[in-house]
């Protein structure tokens, strides 16, 4: 299924209930706080520098269907991956380490938006949810974290619709990283190359 970005904002987020690997175990994403030490794939445990959330209702989904969450069934990506259903925004990226990544893109691992992985079976847009709260958390740099046992991305301001944040959270973000108020890409590169929807389609068709 082709990946179509949201017309409202690019929303890269975990939904309520997602368990994030932290120092000493796991923590629901809605309870993450600044200073929490989160397990990352590349840089060990890193402190959370900023958190935010956005609640969406049925009216938001009606106005922009691309805001509906994607539900990834337990085991859809392999044994215990995820360990239980994982709910993320359509634009949220997951790490792929399939052998085809190297063959097609010259990299062992790539990031792919959840919507591009939808198969209408084990990975589908969840039309039954009437509301969702999406949570963002950011580190000093873009990281790969563990969400219900699946490797996913942290918040990156260049690709996550900073304009959709409330004023207080946006100002908080700009105080932490003044440079991104001018150029969000100044935050740095993504942890891995991010595929576009058509590239994921090619990958999955091989």
Our measurement of the CA-to-CA distance between the termini, rounded to an integer number of angstroms, reads 15 Å
Average the pLDDT over all residues and give the rounded result.
Answer: 90
Total domain modules: 1
Structural classification: alpha+beta
* Oligomeric state of shown chains: single chain
- Helix-strand pattern, N to C? EEEEEEHEEEHEEEEEHH
β-sheet strand percentage:
25-35%
Percent helix among the residues? 10-25%
Gyration radius from CA atoms, angstroms: 16 Å
Care to describe what's here?
- The chain is an alpha+beta fold.
- The protein has a single domain (14-205), classed as Endonuclease - Pi-scei, Chain A, domain 1 (Beta Complex).
- Helices cover 16% and strands 30% of the residues.
- It has four helices and 14 strands.
- The chain has helices at residues 58-63, 99-105, 167-176, 197-205; strands at residues 14-15, 19-22, 25-28, 37-40, 44-47, 50-57, 69-72, 86-89, 93-96, 110-113, 123-125, 131-138, 144-147, 150-153.
- A three-stranded antiparallel β-sheet has the order 1-12-6. A three-stranded antiparallel β-sheet has the order 8-7-11, with no helix packed on it. The protein has a two-stranded antiparallel sheet with strand order 2-3.
- Strand 13 (144-147) and strand 14 form a beta hairpin.
- The longest helix has 10 residues, at 167-176.
- The protein is globular.
- The protein starts with 13 loop residues before the first strand and ends with a helix.
- The relative contact order is 0.23.
- InterPro entries: Hedgehog/Intein_dom (IPR028992), Hint_dom_sf (IPR036844).
- This is Iron-regulated protein frpC.
- Residues 14-157 form the Hedgehog/Intein (Hint) domain.
